[in-house]
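One chain given next:
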Amino acid sequence: MSYVDDILNDLKEKNPYEPEFIEAATEILESIRPVFNVHPEYEKNFLLERFIEPERVIIFRVPWVDDKGDIQVNRGYRVQFNSAIGPYKGGLRFHPTVNLSVLKFLAFEQTLKNSLTGMSIGGGKGGSDFNPKDRSDGEVMRFCQSFMSELHKYIGPDTDIPAGDMGVGGREVGYLFGEYKRLANVHVAVLTGVGLEFGGSLVRKEATGYGLVYITQKALEPRAESFKGKSVVISGSGNVAIYAAEKAISVGAKVIAMCDSNGYIHDENGIDLDLIKKIKEVKRGRISEYLDYPGKSKTSEYVEGGIIWNVGCDVALPCATQNELSEKSAKILVKNGTKFVAEGANMPSTNEAIDIFLKNGVMYLPGKAANAGGVATSALEMAQRSSRLSWTFDEVDQHLKRIMENIYVDIDKVARDYGFENNYVVGANISGFVKVANAMVAQGVV
């Protein structure tokens, strides 16, 4: 058996109840097999044994009081996976599906994603099984304050800098930062994605969605293609999906379908993005409300509980959540003639779906490369706050565009260098891994 096989078997034995983590680790380790022929020193230094284990996992209870005066208890987590190239960086997720397996997979992916940005940031992820949906501002504030009362012991501007993720938007980040500031008595960049009034960065809200389109544009160029005139289906209707749609429309694409967890809206004439923003960002409503507005039901359809990938398109941008795009959905996309898939969410395509894309010549950009714009702009926010300067929207946007284009150039070159031309899964995983691995070897057994 090979070194990678040994590590995978050991991983499965040690983590039998963590399917998401095992799936992510398997995808990454399988794709970096060629590295060990070029770098035998990695096996000599037992690199993978250390690489797949988080440096630290923090689990804690989060007691809080709801509006009825009843005591609630949730579980909080922070997985500090790898700090070889910089302090831990990665979001906090508040959602009922949060568990240790999910957060270990996200933190593992985050380690490689952060490496691809070219910035000095390591990988981490955290969150809670708390669901902020339908909770009052007071309940969310009390939960966030209790959560931070424990988490603050383990984070700091040179140690671990969390940000938002699913269920953690500007409101939640504001409450978390306020409690950290009260406890630590310092006003530092310990959370990114904060409000513009107290150190936030322009473009942060748009960054992941914009970055997704920037890297896809760059990948289309050598294929003599562009977004202009192409039909686009985007899963999700949160920040990533909305701003991917906004940027895609601005460069000439037509977004024909978007969704939330209940169903999807489809309009061959193009989605009214301003209306989606009103429903989701202002009203915090359901996408089904789209048809309630005058005239929309004449050109649009709402499909309750349907699979959005049934909608034929040129470009598919999965921007909702992990494992949303199955092997069955991938086959539907291929059958319908979709040629380009780029991930705005973290690992939204299953390993089986990825195989379908690669075998059928679909240009596929994995999330660790394609959705790195969010964390890249978080690092730009850290730079601005450290220097007490605020850059203009265009300045931040240009930095973001350059970073995303450089990521594509890098993963494309690495894929070709290792004999896997157009396989950006291999390119992204090897590129991100080698940088972290070299840092770990240089720093000794720590």
About this structure: The chain has a mean pLDDT of 95. Residues 393-417 form the longest helix (25 residues). The longest strand covers residues 71-82. The chain is about 45% helix and 15% strand.
